[in-house]
Write a structure and sequence with these properties.
- The protein is mainly alpha-helical and about 220 residues long.
- About 5% of the residues have low confidence.
Length: about 220
């Protein structure tokens, strides 16, 4: 009975996931007790759906908090640091939460968006691919640069000792096809390229040429 009251209070204050944790509502109340009270099963299903929703919301909130305190140029963000943690958070997001991530882009600063641009991967799904492409048009050069760099890498354009080259090992064919179909992306790549150092310009120009190819 006390557990039931705890659940009711948690639902009222929006902390259901915090009370239930990683388990289910049934486990929290006790499987035997639930089996002895079959009339409350519809209510338990409702609470479990709410708990799942709260958990998903929390995962986006955690990602948001991490990105707000991060800097894509810092050592802490580098490989093996917070960037890796943020990537894991993205990988665990359900499809419907990606829309919320996209919405957050319009209300967060350029540092937040730069961190996001640096961890987006085609393997994360269609929403991630579209978001990475969208960020190529960001008004802040650093964000646009990181987005275009990611687009180049996953379209198979890489850097070598003798300059940029086509690297089929990094190419994601599905993403390349989507990038080719993005209106005016080639124009935007060249706009960003014009503001970069010559070595980077060479890589971005190879990307532009790759996108222009029909096959």
């Amino acid at each position: 009975m006390h557990s039931s009251h705890d659940l009711l209070y948690a639902a009222k204050i929006g902390n259901l996931a915090g009370v239930v944790g990683t388990g289910s509502v049934t486990e929290f109340l006790g499987k035997q007790w639930v089996a002895e009270h079959p009339r409350i099963w519809p209510d338990i299903q409702t609470l479990e759906a709410l708990a799942l929703f709260c958990t998903q919301q929390a995962s986006v909130n955690e990602l948001d908090t991490l990105l707000q305190r991060s800097d894509s140029d810092s050592m802490r963000w580098a490989d093996g640091g917070d960037a890796e943690i943020a990537e894991e958070m993205l990988a665990s997001l359900p499809k419907e939460d990606w829309l919320r991530v996209k919405d957050l882009c319009s209300s967060r600063d350029s540092q937040w968006r730069a961190c996001l641009a640096s961890i987006l991967r085609p393997q994360q799904g269609e929403f991630a691919q579209r978001l990475l492409l969208d960020l190529a048009w960001d008004q802040e050069l650093e964000v646009a640069f990181l987005a275009v760099s990611g687009i180049a890498f996953y379209c198979g354009v890489n850097d070598g000792r003798q300059g940029p080259f086509i690297d089929l090992k990094t190419r994601n064919p599905t993403f390349l096809s989507r990038a080719k179909s993005a209106a005016d992306l080639v124009v935007q790549v060249r706009k960003v390229s014009a503001l970069c150092y010559p070595t980077i310009q060479a890589r971005f120009e190879l990307l532009a040429q790759t996108l222009e190819k029909q096959s």
